[in-house]
């Protein structure tokens, strides 16, 4: 429960950085030990580019347009912006990036966004149910996600926390996370470990080692367990000891804001 | 011989009502000018294939020329939804749109099988995904050597593939570089190939990382400088991200879209 001290702290924190910045900084930190990352567009791309400027300058960014080792100076709007190719170590055709590099097991971390996530970190990006008598609402579709989630060593998900996004039941399973429990990935022959963290603007959820169910393990500064539960569409479990993420450093915030400012100025 | 042809003549000759057409280009080198010529000629009942439908297919779908879409990611990259695509799928406007929906890995391998003239391709894909329940072009096959069950995706062989490239020589040899996408595979999978280029040159300079499609694999080359706008041609132009952002409000509204189409595509001589 939020008491007066919590509320005061939250107000202080809000003055220094936004919820989105907490999400982006923590997403970047999650890439500290990776060698290679398959980067989705949007929040994952922001996080991966921030990681290269802070915790992991040698991180190899791989985009599904076939650019391997991209070192963009600003955030790309699309996964095929020219700068991704111009700054890459290698540019390969799209079938090759999926077959030789992703399916070939050469990528440590897949970094994905999502429209809907369930308690086993399965993902929907295809259609949403809008109620009886109404047509399904159309989302963009799978893109690279099903095979990224299957074949990368591990998967990170990043999305804003709300009951629209964190749902009891997916309207469609586009991309398998942990299925319905700890044995489903093995049964289906998925080479990678699957989702290891879901990083949101409120905190971090990680699959319970015994059940694979997403569990709240860390809160961002100024956020309460009650807030996270209220933004989750199922009875969210919490770890025995819920930790706190470290506040963003001045360097992290400076680099993040510079990245975003550069991305905006080209438009 | 072919390079003297106009875009109008090349499209009229190579693209027909009812065809399966792939206009490829992964964000880069998207053949917008050729798509606009298809719209001007009213070539209809098309099955369109493309990994990322992008704004180019939003326009063709909104123009009412498309009966079926074969694809793997249908958004406006970095901006949001493709509203004409959504209106067709959700409301059947201006006509219902049948979908054959895949993952990127599946679509890429469908073109690879098509270029290889094999009936299908195999991959470790679609595992645990609902996608396979909505299409008859994904199945499974058992590896005869290891017993592993793998996904099988049906070959995709378009009647015609249309691409945009940086340049060609006078023998129709086509050269493109930068983000390569799936254009080589889509071209070699197709029965007919139409290429628009930024320029026709006397000799193709050796270019690191470039793909060359020999002239005898291509049916027509048409010089259309800027023919990929608002997409781009590396070395010639940059992606017009402002156009992609500005597309969102145009495509949200049926009348705004129709007015845009009339002003920028249907009126002759304003191909982009």
UniProtKB/TrEMBL annotation, chain B:
This is 3-oxoadipate:succinyl-CoA transferase. It comes from the Bacteria. InterPro entries: CoA_trans_fam_I (IPR004165), NagB/RpiA_transferase-like (IPR037171). Belongs to the 3-oxoacid CoA-transferase subunit B family. Gene3D superfamilies: 3.30.30.40, Glutaconate Coenzyme A-transferase. Keywords: Transferase. GO terms for molecular function: transferase activity. It holds the Pfam family CoA_trans.
